[in-house]
Amino acid sequence: METVMLPVTLVTAGGAALIALWLAIRVGQVRTTAKVSIGDGGDERLICRMRAQANFVEYAPFIVILIALIEFTAGTATWLWVASTLFLLARVAHPLGMDGLKYARTAGTLVTFLLLLGLGGYAIALPLIAAQHAPANDPVEVITPAG
Fold it and tell me: Is 98 exposed, middle or buried (0-12, 13-18, 19+ CB in 10 A)?
């Protein structure tokens, strides 16, 4: 059995896991400071941290899945590495922007939306492109058992 290696997907998923951990720790730190164990307690900083974490969970799976399916179908490509890097940077920028870093939230959101549009559109187009370049009549080899 041949092993399939999807390096872009592996790095992206690993990076996303580390970002998810970082976001959870950030929420926990504010929970401890605000002495709020359940909910947000009306604490503005906790609300921002919780929303940044939830926002990551809302978008990250789609990007990682799209990268995986595209890499599996079309192969590893430099542009996919670029998309992965942009995604990970955007997902770090967004929560920093939620903490007040000027333009980081907007940049993180914009890059994420553009990646969803680009990767989603490419994933939809990929089977159509492949179908146009496939030979019309693939020869089929029939093997009959001897005997």
Answer: buried
Can you list the positions of beta strands (E) in the chain?
A: none
Question: pLDDT digits over 52-104, tens only?
Answer: 999 999 999 999 999 999 999 999 999 999 999 999 999 999 999 999 999 99
Q: Specify the amino acid at residue 26.
A: R
Q: What is the DSSP string of 44-79?
A: HHHHHHHHHHHHHHHHHHHHHHHHHHHHHHH---HH
9: amino acid identity, one letter: T
- CA–CA gap between residue 82 and residue 73 (Å, rounded): 18
Distance CA 52, CA 44 (A): 12
Give residue-wise pLDDT tens across range 120-131: 999 999 999 888
The amino acid that residue 34 corresponds to is A
Q: Is the pTM of this model over 0.90?
A: no
- What's the number of CA atoms in the CB half-sphere (13 Å) around residue 125? 6
